[in-house]
Amino acid sequence: MNRKDIYEWLQEISDKQDLIINTLQEGREDVKSSSKEIMTVDEVAEYLEKSRQTIYTYVSKRKIPHSKSGGLHFLKSEIDAWIKAGMKKAY
Predict the structure, then answer these.
(1) Cα–Cα distance measured from residue 16 to residue 37, given in angstroms and rounded to the nearest whole number
(2) I need a labelling partner for 66 at 20 to 30 A (CA). Which of 26, 45, 73, 78 fits?
(3) Does the pLDDT value for residue 81 go beyond 60?
(4) How many CA within 13 A on the CB side of residue 9?
(5) Rounded distance between C-alpha atoms, residue 78 and residue 5, angstroms
(6) 8 A C-beta contact, residue 76 and residue 86
(7) Hey, which residues does 39 pair with through a beta bridge?
(8) Residue range 22-71, pLDDT digits in tens
(9) 29-38 as b/e, with b when 16 or more CB fall inside 10 Å?
(10) Is the dihedral of CA 79, 84, 89, 91 positive or negative?
């Protein structure tokens, strides 16, 4: 290998390293945005301007999209879609 080959090889490594760093940074942004996507009962109640009890009633009657895995939570995108659909039965 001559100096030019070594330089080109190091440049390729540097380019790949930049790509990896950018990908990891974008992944962090995805995690941040997905954590904002998950809502608690209080957050949904505030978002919908309803009481906590109303949200629990919607959950018990399966009127609102939710998940109970790891505790009761809601995905904002599902709540938004549910609102757009006219707040019809979720399940």
Answers:
(1) 31
(2) 26
(3) yes
(4) 6
(5) 53
(6) no
(7) 74
(8) 778 777 665 555 557 899 999 999 999 999 999 999 999 999 999 998 88
(9) eeeeeeeeee
(10) negative
Using 50, 70 and 90 to split pLDDT, how confident is the model at 20? Answer: confident
Which tokens belong to 18?
């930049």
82's tokens: 């549910």
SS3 72: coil
Q: How many CB atoms lie within 10 A of CB 74?
A: 23
- 3-state SS assignment for residue 22: helix
Tokens of 73: 């939570």
User: Could you tell me if 63 and 50 are in contact, meaning their C-beta atoms sit under 8 angstroms apart?
Assistant: no
Q: For residue 89, is pLDDT > 80?
A: no
